[in-house]
Design brief:
Length: 145
């Protein structure tokens, strides 16, 4: 079992949480965007995670010791919200329709901020796991001296 290969599991988690954070920040930045190049208001996005087999010597040992259902994580898709936009009555707005209503994205900034904190903590947990592996590697090297 290679301790260096052990880092692939938390690395996959860090990559997935980074992608999640990027999408959440995009949602927050566009929470008031009423016009996009595609037409209409911005559409909220959500990241969907899936299990991902890890291609390393450690992955096979990990599955052998803990069972076949222990794997890394990856982003399987980014879903775009297909609900109708939230309509607000703002007759003087440049994007208002004939009745004076403007379509706004269905983005809840409070919810996305909580999700962003969760992504940050998930990323930090993976950093802690990598730090633990790094410490094990350094201690193993010290023992071999």
């Amino acid at each position: 079992m290679s301790l260096l290969a052990l880092m692939s599991v938390p690395a996959s988690g860090m990559s997935a949480q980074r992608a999640r954070a990027e999408v959440l920040v995009e949602n927050l930045a566009n929470s008031q965007t009423t016009r996009t190049p595609e037409g209409g208001p911005y559409r909220r996005k959500d990241v969907v995670f899936t299990t991902s087999p890890q291609a390393s010597a450690f992955a096979s040992e990990f599955r052998h010791a803990l069972g076949p259902h222990v794997e890394g994580v990856a982003v399987s898709e980014v879903k775009i919200d297909d609900r109708e936009p939230e309509m607000r009555y703002i007759p003087g707005h440049p994007d208002a329709d004939a009745r004076g209503y403007v379509g706004f994205p269905r983005v809840n900034p409070a919810e996305d901020m909580v999700d962003l904190m969760s992504a940050s903590r998930g990323y930090q947990a993976n950093v802690s796991a990598m730090t633990a592996v790094k410490d094990m590697i350094f201690r193993s090297i010290d023992l071999l001296r």
